[in-house]
Amino acid sequence: MADPPRGNRLGGMALANGLLVHGPSHWAAAVRDDDGRMVVASGRKQLFRAGRLTDMPVARGLVRLGEAFAVLPAVRRGLPQARFAMEDRATVGAAVGATVVAAVARRRLRSILAQEIVGAVAGLAPAVLTLRGSRAAIWHAVEHKSIAAYEAGGADEVANAEGHAKEHERCGSNLILPLVVSTVIGNTVTRKLVRRPTFGVRTAMSALSIGAAVEVFSFSARRPEHPVSRLVHGVGHAMQSGFATREPSQSDLLVGRAAMEALIRAEGASRL
């Protein structure tokens, strides 16, 4: 089985019933359907390219996130059995509750900074509830173990994913602290400078905040010994070990292996 180019790092996402992984040009997913049978699918990624703009700081982070989220509709079409972790009613309820909390904070708190901090922290509730109240934490660990195994030893090592840590240094949890800080700062500055920000202004500031957070995330991955990186990774690791991941079974790891092997085949075929 041919490996995709080893210089490219893989990404992934825990589903409610399996694992989605993606490489430079393809995605693959494996899930357990309602009858417990394993179903696997793969396909090409939609890539966003706009010349040098896509490689500029801040913009490149938005491009990467955009490409990752653009995979989701393709997964829905190619693998109808897949269930996304954020689809359950409890998560939707938590999202509504977070919106209410943020609205109340804006009315009751006088400080704009305090309002934004409460809103940003409340916005984490849906993700926390999803990971604590479902099997998503198990699939999250399958994602980390499977990708870590491949990055450590290539396709042959994927079969040994059980021996790898359930926490991963590039987990999206490491994006949480930078994103909360950049969002709070961006929204606070915007509201202080613009009395009634328009939708366009708010959208632009949100994009800037997300792009800046991804830059910090990438910096932390490149320079893990830097004090900022240690803080970012410390918060992310605490979230992963505390509630965002749980040790999977051998049956769960077989699903992760199937997803990884499907991705390796797809990426290998794309180079022929």
How would you describe this protein?
The protein is an alpha+beta fold and 272 residues long. It has a domain at 1-83 and 135-164 and 249-272. Helices cover 58% and strands 8% of the residues. The protein contains nine helices and four strands. Strand 3 (26-32) and strand 4 (38-44) form a beta hairpin. The longest helix has 24 residues, at 199-222. It is globular. Mean pLDDT is 86; it is low at 1-6.
Strand order of the largest sheet: 1-2-3-4
Can you write the helix and strand succession as a string? EEEEHHHHHHHHH
The number of distinct helices, counting runs of at least 4 residues, comes to 9
Uncertain runs are 1-6
Overall mean pLDDT stands at 86
Task: Name the shape in a single word.
Answer: globular
What structural class should be given to the helix and strand makeup? Answer: alpha+beta
Concise structural overview:
The chain has helices spanning 59-78, 89-108, 112-122, 125-132, 136-153, 176-193, 199-222, 227-244, 250-269, and strands at residues 11-14, 18-22, 26-32, 38-44.
Show the helix and strand layout.
Layout: E1 11-14, E2 18-22, E3 26-32, E4 38-44, H1 59-78, H2 89-108, H3 112-122, H4 125-132, H5 136-153, H6 176-193, H7 199-222, H8 227-244, H9 250-269
Antiparallel strand pairs: 1-2, 2-3, 3-4
